[in-house]
Amino acid sequence: MAIDAVKSHFRHWNREDDVMEFDASSATVYQAAETIGVIPARIAKTLSFRGREEKAILVVAAGDARIDNPKFRDAFGLKARMLSPDEVLEQTGHAIGGVCPFGLANELDVFLDVSLKRFETVYPACGSANSAIELTCEELHQYSSAKGWVDVCKGWE
Description:
Distance between the termini: 36 Å
CATH topology: YbaK protein
Largest sheet: 6 strands, mixed
Number of helices: 5
């Protein structure tokens, strides 16, 4: 189960008990925000894109941000093409609704969008459609082994 892989991932930092599991769904940005009790923008959504040589690129962005295709192309030299739900599961080990940059099935390149930096803490999913963890942006960067910060989104400014 994907949430178990995520909890195992967080054991390295003694944070596995900080993974929250809910009775209600947190599969979408709005469901997660309602379940947790925060504004949708503070939900850190993980988006999965086709990269080079069949390797996905993950971009973690604020819940109110949308991918800006020209910015994405400038940052990665690729057109922003989202993976299908089956490809997401195969690449990350997580099903849609629980996709996160932790406990991944494969070693993938993770990038964090600057749209997250306006918040003290954000809430990424934890491998299931009813889980999350509260992290600072620095913790998110560390725990996800992010390659760095990118500016590939619009609509949040």
